[in-house]
């Protein structure tokens, strides 16, 4: 007999809001005992995740490649002579990948490429009686993409970062990924790197990879921006090096929030929740619905579908840890809760999903209707699936072409323009107490 899935069900919108808006601080994340034991073994002390990251970054800055090799041996169990993956290794690994998977990766690449090409913009210049003003749009010179190892390789995530970078015109794209104990990177990752047009790949994982890309070592070049998801040590390392380099975001465990009415198929609702729950025990699968009957049916479907999954244990933990089915009085309440939560993925399983799109204020991505599951967005829809989590969708965006561009302002004022614009500039400079600023204008005006 199948046991009932444990997932909290709430009928009080205020209680649902309180649960959704819990604050989960990265620095306060409690590490599992297995991880803490490993830290004690390697560092000889019971360090926090932040303290571990600080030590690793300091060692990589001071020792370079030697620190990378040491931490690869201690943390990944791999002994490496060469940190960079040779071109022949990439070719051999790609040859190991089944042809249908290679075809699917190329199909996804082409979809991602086509979507992001619509976003490209050009430098511009405006001329008038005062002279010229404009912007020069330039791609970044070199970016670094982190690709995690762990429970499973994610070649799709590599495509979702590298392809927009290539579309933007980035000159050099490097990838860092942790090796297995045999010193190899997953053939899926290497095949994706090849298909995406990545220039160089390095067998380096964890916080040490972030430090290497931020500061440079003998083998790993310093980059201008670091992108990509990872575990808590990777995310904290990205936070630490921000300012030395740019970063995309601080991605946490995946989040999916479904808004559904009585027209929704409970089997599809459950399937979408489980699809995200299987990522991570800390994933957040959430359903807000106006139908108490649907809520009960989805709970029953979760119970029926979960045991058949290969990653049932992980998905079950996610449902217990962060899962929620909340019954709300109406759709405005559901959207109010969703905007407060600012989910990574917002799925509208409604009879008329397009009619409610204007209600969405905060989300990484919106998926409209039962034919647009979030899983499609993970692979072949086109937009990057690397999206903001942890309520950062209130102020940040998914990876896109803009991540890889910078703007240079152009000011070319003529003599007549100086006469017209200068006096007010000098007045404002003196109001701020910056008399040298004012005199730099006034000397030109002869005053």
Automatic annotation (TrEMBL):
Which cofactor is recorded for it?
A: Zn(2+)
Q: What gene is this protein a product of?
A: hisD
Pathway(s) it belongs to = Amino-acid biosynthesis; L-histidine biosynthesis; L-histidine from 5-phospho-alpha-D-ribose 1-diphosphate: step 9/9
What name has this protein been given in UniProt? Histidinol dehydrogenase
Family in the record: Belongs to the histidinol dehydrogenase family.
The organism is Sphaerobacter thermophilus (strain ATCC 49802 / DSM 20745 / KCCM 41009 / NCIMB 13125 / S 6022)
Cofactor comment in the record? Answer: Binds 1 zinc ion per subunit.
Any single GO molecular-function term of the entry would be: histidinol dehydrogenase activity
Q: Which EC number(s) does UniProt give?
A: 1.1.1.23
Role of this protein: Catalyzes the sequential NAD-dependent oxidations of L-histidinol to L-histidinaldehyde and then to L-histidine.
Cite the CDD domains for this sequence.
Answer: Histidinol_dh (cd06572)
Which terms does the UniProt entry file under GO BP? L-histidine biosynthetic process
User: What residues bind substrate, as annotated?
Assistant: 254, 276, 279, 345, 378, 432, 437
